[in-house]
Amino acid sequence: MLNKFQLKNQNALITGAGGLLGYEHSYALLQSGANIILTDINLKTLNYNFKRLKKLFPENKIFKFKVDITKENSVKKCFTFLQKKKIFVNILINNAAYNPPNNKLGFSIFENYSLKSWQREIDISLTGAFICTKIFGSEMAKKKKGVILNISSDLSVIA
């Protein structure tokens, strides 16, 4: 890999790391030499991806935290733990998204989309990214370094 893509000694936090894209982002960062902090509200999928990545990249530092990014205190708890361990998050990937249950025919049709699902999507995709950016981004601003990537769906453009 080209040297300009090397992320040795860089710490990347990925939200929604229990999901498919979270895994792929983590894999790419580990290939580049980064240390990663996997976060997700779903402990089962978080543990599954953690074990898969740890097996493939035993030399890299990989951390995991159950975090509800829609709750500021949950994100602050993760931030405080990392600070105590002297881990500065250089890269924040706001990747978490809501996957509505696919138990009804036509659930994705706008007229069938529930207000509860809509609100949950807003809470995770927008409010969660806001909270994480506020907490981890403020430390980046103080140190005058860091990268924040906000992942969104192509459906936002298609819609």
Salient structural properties:
159 residues, globular, alpha/beta
Backbone CA Rg? 16 Å
The helicity comes to: 40-55%
**Strand element count:** 5
Instruction: Provide the low-confidence segments as ranges.
Output: none
Strand content: 5-15%
Distance between the termini: 36 Å
Individual helix count:
5
User: Quick one: overall form?
Assistant: globular
- Could you spell the SSE succession in H and E letters? EHEHEHEHEH
Order of strands in the sheet with the most strands? 3-2-1-4-5
> Quick one: biggest sheet?
5 strands, parallel
* Mean pLDDT metric: 90
Structural class: alpha/beta
Topology, pairings included?
Elements: E1 11-14, H1 20-31, E2 35-40, H2 43-56, E3 62-66, H3 72-84, E4 91-94, H4 115-143, E5 147-150, H5 155-158
Parallel strand pairs: 1-2, 1-4, 2-3, 4-5
Structure characterization notes:
- By secondary structure, this protein is of the alpha/beta class.
- It is built from 5 helices and 5 strands, in the order E-H-E-H-E-H-E-H-E-H.
- Helix 2 (43-56) links the parallel strand 2 (35-40) and strand 3 (62-66).
- Helix 3 runs parallel beside helix 4.
- The radius of gyration is 16 Å and the shape is globular.
- It starts with 10 loop residues before the first strand and ends with a helix.
- 31% of the residues are buried.
- The model has no long low-confidence stretch (mean pLDDT 90).
